[in-house]
């Protein structure tokens, strides 16, 4: 190897090392959620303060480490956007792992929404004047509830991915279980019992208060929330999502009729796995850039 080639190789290696040393990484931060008196955690990366910060909410019983959430956050971070990915506590201080169906579920939709509200306030306290919200699966539904209950000029747009609903006969919801839970609450007996809830078939162990709080998220309710949004919204769906087997593919027509900007990724499943991860990233980055310009 000549001296000239050696110098060039040395310069290249130094440049690569310097580029790695300048990379920013999300940090795990703790935040006391005053409204529900619990400690929560989130991964936060601060970038260009002039761009909107993006908060991403995970799906049912999972955490912010779920691969779909991480994929979306990384794509936005690469484009210079600040990201916040909380793990909803589900009544567990600093929850770090997913919860099983047969665990004792005491969390409620209302508590989840309050946590989202306080995380948005936390972003504002860090100097972020504009926030865009992104949800995956049930995280999308919880964001819809949040936007309906606590509208804020800080929120500049919303992106929902794999948006369905949680309650309905076609999903396995049993009317007799709803009546049973309502009867327990009427008697002020908030003891856990087993219910059928989504993929938790007769083994979702929850208090009636917890179970019933999510039952409001039926088909008509979710569509109504989406139709009445006060901020621009985009909904990204996978054409091969198996949940269409339960709800019917006309769900896409119902979504589009609400006025949301509907995008369908051909061949993608509920989690945008494999090569469709990059399709999701591309669509998300394009949408966030569009919302940023508004």
From TrEMBL:
Coiled-coil zones: none
Residues annotated as signal peptide: 1-26
Molecular function terms from GO: hydrolase activity
Keywords: Hydrolase, Signal
Record-linked InterPro entries: AB_hydrolase_fold, SidJ
Protein name: Alpha/beta hydrolase
Short name of one Pfam family: DUF1749
């Amino acid at each position: 190897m000549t001296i000239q080639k050696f110098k060039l190789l040395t310069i290249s290696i130094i440049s690569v090392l310097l580029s790695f040393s300048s990379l920013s990484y999300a940090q795990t931060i703790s935040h006391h959620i005053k409204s529900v008196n619990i400690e929560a955690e989130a991964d936060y990366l601060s970038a260009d303060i002039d761009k909107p910060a993006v908060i991403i909410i995970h799906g049912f019983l999972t955490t912010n480490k779920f691969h779909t959430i991480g994929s979306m956050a990384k794509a936005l971070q690469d484009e210079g956007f600040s990201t916040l990915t909380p793990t909803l506590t589900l009544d567990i201080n600093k929850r770090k792992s997913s919860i099983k169906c047969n665990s004792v579920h005491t969390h409620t939709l209302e508590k989840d929404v309050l946590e989202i509200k306080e995380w948005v306030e936390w972003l504002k306290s860090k100097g972020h004047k504009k926030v865009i919200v992104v949800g995956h699966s049930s995280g999308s539904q919880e964001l819809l509830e949040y936007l309906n209950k606590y509208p804020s000029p800080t929120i500049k747009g919303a992106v929902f991915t794999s948006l369905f609903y949680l309650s309905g006969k076609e999903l396995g919801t049993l009317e007799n279980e709803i009546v049973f839970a309502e009867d327990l609450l009427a008697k002020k007996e908030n003891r856990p019992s087993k219910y059928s809830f989504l993929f938790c078939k007769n083994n979702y162990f929850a208090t009636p208060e917890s179970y019933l709080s999510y039952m409001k998220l039926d088909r008509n309710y979710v569509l109504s929330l989406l139709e009445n949004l006060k901020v621009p919204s985009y909904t990204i769906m996978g054409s091969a999502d198996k949940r269409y087997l339960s709800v019917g593919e006309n769900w896409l027509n119902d979504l589009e009729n609400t006025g949301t900007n509907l995008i369908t990724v051909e061949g993608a499943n509920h989690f945008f796995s494999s090569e469709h991860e990059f399709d999701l990233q591309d669509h998300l980055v394009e949408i966030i850039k569009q919302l940023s310009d508004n």
